[in-house]
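INFO  loader      accepted 1 record
INFO  loader      residues=205
INFO  predictor   begin
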Amino acid sequence: MKNYYIICLGLILVVQHCVTSPIPDDEQIDEHNKLYIEVLKDLTEFALKTGDELREYVTRVVDEVKQDDDKDSSNIRQEKLVKNYEKVKNSEGDPNMLDLYELTGDIIDFATDDFADKDEQAKKFIEKYKVVEFSEKIREAVTKFYDHISEEFETYAHELDETQKQEQQKLFDWHKDFSGTSEIKDKFNEIVSFFELFKPTVPKK
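INFO  predictor   done
INFO  writer      dumping tokens
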């Protein structure tokens, strides 16, 4: 495959996942918490729906490039995306959190990539496959997902009495950080931090 095809395909999936450190065990919140259940459901639905759209798009582009170049070559990042999607899809409603983080990270990476200032061959590729337009569509889906998480929190907080609010102050502190973060990747890290409040899933380095 020509070098610029490899470069362009690399633009589609750039893996730069960052996750936060786990919360100490003595600071965990009960994972049967209603908000935890709702946010986990939201994350799973978002990852599956948007991940499926991204998987179909990337697979189509990779297949077309293979046909145009008349070579049977693999694309590691496309294969990784498909693998992550299949693991979450086949989890039967109880996905592994790290699998969810990986799939969501693939989505976030695509939504935040900068397609400006590429060379001429790359620009032609981006224009032909409407990469920027599709990236914007994925970015919009991510933003809606984040907005919905905030709505879920507000609804949950409204149902708590003052004692419960004091007992769950860590959730209010978390939401303050989440709301105060504008960068898409930083918000994803805050989503990870949310789940770490309930049970650790990110191994210590």
